[in-house]
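Collaborator request log, item 7. Partner lab (contact: R.S.) asked for a structural prediction of Pheromone-processing carboxypeptidase KEX1 to inform their binding assays.
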Amino acid sequence: MHPLSSMVTKLLIFFSIIAPLTFALQATDFYVQDLPLLPKGASSIRMHAGLLPVNPQHNGSLFFWHFEKKYPSDKLRTVIWLDGGPGCSSMAAAWTEIGPFRFQDENTIIENDGSWHLYTNLLFVDQPVGTGFSTIDTDSFIHELDEMANQFLSFLDQYMKIFPELLENDIYLAGISFAGQFIPYIAKAILEQRSTLKLRGLLIGNGWIDPVTMYKSYLPFAVANNLVVANSDLYNRINIEVKRCEHALFKQATEAMIDGMTWNGGTGFDFGNGTSSPKDPWIVDGESAGLIRSAHYNFIIIQITQSLFLNHQNVAGEDVYVSEQETFTPPSPKMKKSRMKVY
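Returned to partner:
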């Protein structure tokens, strides 16, 4: 073999085998040492955050924030949290629901004594691409649940390369609202295509699984639990609104469905106040905004999470998209028989 050809061959071998190992991202590349507004040395929480590629051709990557469990437990567990929407950032749950931090005031972050990370590893993911701090070219959003599930498998593949200990953990997929669509599809894909993962259960809170059936169940549930008196004025008004929602669903008119909903001070449904232009509770400013007490805190949360994004942006991406995904219409699949628990 010509000496030049031999050298070229050796270089090709190096860049195809050795170089990827040399330049591969490691867990330390995603380690988060501190957060703005979190006093130095005030927390021993170990966390990692960053972007992992799922569609490099179109700048598609998913943003994650991982917290290691604080106390010993009988088993290694990881809860993967997905918010709904579709298009809602899971960082809302990280900050205001089950995550390890809370605001003491607008200038100080403290640890949350009720955080799930006390006894399980927590992994929050903004998905699908284009949600929250995850990125994608604006002409490359996904529109099908099967595509979403396969994309999430790509994320897990990348994640396990950097954090292989996930393979040793019992895994639970958790979420609310439209995650009731996401989670069954992802679970089905894991069972069929990633059997090495120890998927042990699904935790779905108020899942948006079958809207037509669900809307019909709300009023009977309220009556059975003495929340509403049958044939009362409130009962009749709710019944009218339920029928309007059913009609909107059959027409596949999301705007009409939203117009049929009414909000009370940004904290919940109020079917009796006659409001025709509802306010979204997540943009209400003031005490009525509920868990996120004011829009001012919303901006603080975004700024702090953005610092994670910018400091751990290991995948190139020029923009942060916070977009509304198109509504996914396929029904949730029937789960194959397994020992996996669904809550």
